[in-house]
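Posting for a labmate who doesn't have an account.
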Amino acid sequence: MCYQMIQTPEQLDAVCACLRQNETTLMLDTEFVRTRTFYANLGLLQIFDGHQCFLVDPLLCDLNNSDFWSLLTHHHWVLHAFGEDLEILKHHVSQFGLSIFDTQIGAAFLGHGISMGYQALIQETAGVLLDKGESRTDWLARPLTARQLDYAAKDVTYLYQAYHTLIDTLKTRHLYDFVLAESARLAKLRCQENDPQTAYLDIKNAWRLTRQELAVLQKLAAWRLETAIAKDMPVNNVVREEALWLMAKNQPDHKNMLKETGIAPQAFRIHGVALLRLIKEAKELESANWPEKIKRLIDFPHYKQTLQQIREAITLVEVQTTIPADVLAPKRLIHELLNWHWQLTDEQRADEQNKPTLLSGWRYSILEAYLPKIG
């Protein structure tokens, strides 16, 4: 596999010179390590423009003191399963590329499933079975081996052929613009920062708690997320989720009672005093400041019937458009729609920012005439 290693200021200048030329479409990928950190650590950035493949070493190149990141945004981007890649890149660029295309999304529109892996994509489009043996190696260790570099280069060079094969079919079926729009929507979601005040909603079984207990959980979950970000460590390495829930439920007021929540010894030793203080503060909150009780959609009387009606409508649209139902309206987006109808106030529904995905963009242009009336 032909590639150029970028490890010196002179080599980086040469890449920047290429990026200053007319806008083009770049195949991008990242290799990273995230085991004991909140943020992924970038180990390698791969770029292929259809002619040249650059493997940019961020550990040896000072990318932040050059025009590299800014120049990268002057081009169109193609990635495969871009979620984690964009989480890394958003810390370095002010915006993503002129457009962004996720080949996993493109493959999903063509009926290959919503999570087609890169190896399967290349085998389908190029007839080549790639060796993925280096995917779990330490990309922060130096020097990188020839096998690692060859693996990294293939992640963007074969992507070029896959991309063009996909877009030819998508354009024939008049689906290309939909894939671009969906890629842009999901990329925008990746730009959103975690809100500590809503972190409690992600705790398993939070719906079982009373409003007062949720007030405790909200304060604890916000503290846990802020601590994880500040210390750059996984949230469960701060305090495990199950212990956090039990703290909200039992609301310990002394250390022996706190231990009964199953908190790990190290977390107890480091954070025990702070956790008891947070619980005490939350218990003192006025009821007007408690979060609303979490209502599960499954508990609404017409949930199953309405869900079935929507799925029947989506199946009809799938037949007419060839867009798979799990792309048109996955269960998550159906729930978003039902939440909008059943759990938001009239004032909240009037806010365009709260409009559900199924009632906006390319999906609404297709589904408007088919979605049932939701009471």
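Reply:
Got it, the structure tokens are right above this. Residues 196-289 form a domain with the DNA polymerase; domain 1 fold (CATH 1.10.150.80).
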